[in-house]
Design goal:
By secondary structure, the chain is an alpha/beta fold. It is built from nine helices and nine strands. The longest helix has 18 residues.
Length: 237
């Protein structure tokens, strides 16, 4: 039986994309059997009307004090979630919200603490690819990530992740990175704490208009090294 879930959407200057995203999420939730569901938009110091668009679309808005980054925003949303389970989703729904069903089935079947959506395990599920250079940078990043951290995942950066909220709070409260390397960090911490997090292939489509610059993505290559160092220094205890 499905219990309660919080859909967490970190958002920075997403005034234009949020209305369609929230409508799709509400339509999906209305057709499912969750006993309780909420949409939580974490407004990361947006300079447009992101907060107003989120409230108009029926979401609960959590405000960051200033622009702090995606990692900070997701952690903030995790700590504010009311559901027993939580899904982190990008504001552009590049992974369709219906893919939550797939993650939920596998988590229940495997009695796991969470699951992450993956573009790498079955690339035939990618409808619209990223530009070739950006996609190849992602492949190299995940290869180096596995070498540096020892994690088994082939795609840590897909923004579609399901966690049991109790487990997520144990994981995310130890998180130190506020930027895009947080995905690697929380999976590293989860493994250290003994939580099983599955990697599940999902449908995915690149959506134009990302607020993430290619340079910031490349700069994230340093983050697995930070995570490994923090782990060795005992900072995640």
């Amino acid at each position: 039986m499905r219990r309660s879930i919080s859909i967490i959407i970190p958002a920075y200057n997403e005034e234009k994309r949020l209305p369609g995203t929230l409508e799709a999420v509400k339509r999906y939730l209305g057709a499912t059997a969750w006993e309780f569901a909420e949409i939580v938009v974490v407004n990361d110091g947006s300079r447009d009307r992101t907060a107003e668009a989120a409230r108009a679309g029926g979401a609960r808005v959590v405000e960051n004090p200033v622009n702090r980054g995606k990692g900070y925003s997701v952690r903030h949303g995790v700590m504010e979630a009311k559901g027993e389970w939580l899904l982190v989703s990008d504001a552009d729904l590049s992974a369709p919200i219906e893919e939550l069903d797939k993650l939920w089935r596998m988590v229940c079947a495997e009695n796991a603490g969470g699951a992450i959506g993956s573009r790498a395990l079955d690339r035939s599920l990618i409808g619209v690819h990223q530009p070739a250079f950006r996609e190849n940078v992602g492949k190299v990043f995940n290869l180096l990530m596995r070498i540096v951290t020892g994690l088994p995942y082939h795609d840590t950066q897909c923004g579609f992740k399901l966690f049991e909220t109790k487990a997520a709070r144990e994981i995310f409260r130890r998180q130190l990175l506020d930027g895009f390397g947080f995905d690697v960090e929380v999976l590293f911490i989860a493994a250290r704490l003994g939580y099983r997090v599955l990697e599940i292939p999902v449908r995915w489509n690149n959506v134009e208009g990302t607020t993430v610059s290619l340079w910031r993505g490349i700069a994230a290559f340093v983050d697995p090294l930070k995570v490994r160092w923090n782990g060795q220094a005992g900072k995640y205890r």
